[in-house]
Amino acid sequence: MLTKTKIYGRLVGLGLLLSIASGTPATARPIETGVETTGEFQPIEQPLPLKLAVTFGGLALIGAELWWFLFSKSSAKQAEAGEGVQEIAIAVDGGYDPDRVVVQAGQPVRLNFVRKDPSSCLEQVLLPDFHIAADLDLNQVTPVEFTPETPGQYQFTCGMNMFRGVVEVQESASNSQRNTHA
Ligand SMILES: [Cu+2]
């Protein structure tokens, strides 16, 4: 799973690649050395099919990554309410999946963290709003329980605040008008 930083890095890399392929910015700029003031730099000739291939390949990659970044990333899931406890499993593997959990206020919540990532970065999960810090053992299910009383967005993070997820607490259905949207 890729992080945001990696994606931005790759987009920047692709941009560089494209600008090099089109041959404009880097070669046209004279260097201030005084050796060659005429600015007669010879652009390197590249075959047109190669340029086209690089350009369209790059654009396709950018499109694919944008799609992935915008549409397939965030995974919101509604916790399942059973026996009065809203329960949901969260896979811990290069981040949290789902990274957005929807629960109802006033009902106990149990988040079952399943750590599959050996990186020490993810060995702890923090829910500062609920004063929870839990150690996650590798390949184990670690339940984290709390009862959110107030609707809102509550973050959970790894011990270093690098990976994040959100518990979205909605006003409980019995207290509010029934939601008409899916
Ligand atoms: Cu971390």
Ligand species: copper (II) ion
The helix/strand series, from N terminus to C terminus, equals HHHEEEEEEEEEEE
**Mean pLDDT, as a whole number?**
78
| Count of separate DSSP helical elements | 3
* Gross morphology: elongated
Question: Could you state the CATH homologous superfamily of the largest domain?
Answer: Cupredoxins -  blue copper proteins
State Rg: 25 Å
Poorly predicted tracts of residues: 15-20, 23-28
Structural class: alpha/beta
Helical percent range?
25-40%
Count up the domains: 2
CATH topology grouping of the largest domain = Immunoglobulin-like
Beta-strand content bin = 25-35%
Largest sheet: 6 strands, mixed
Distance between the termini: 28 Å
CATH architectural arrangement of the largest domain:
Sandwich
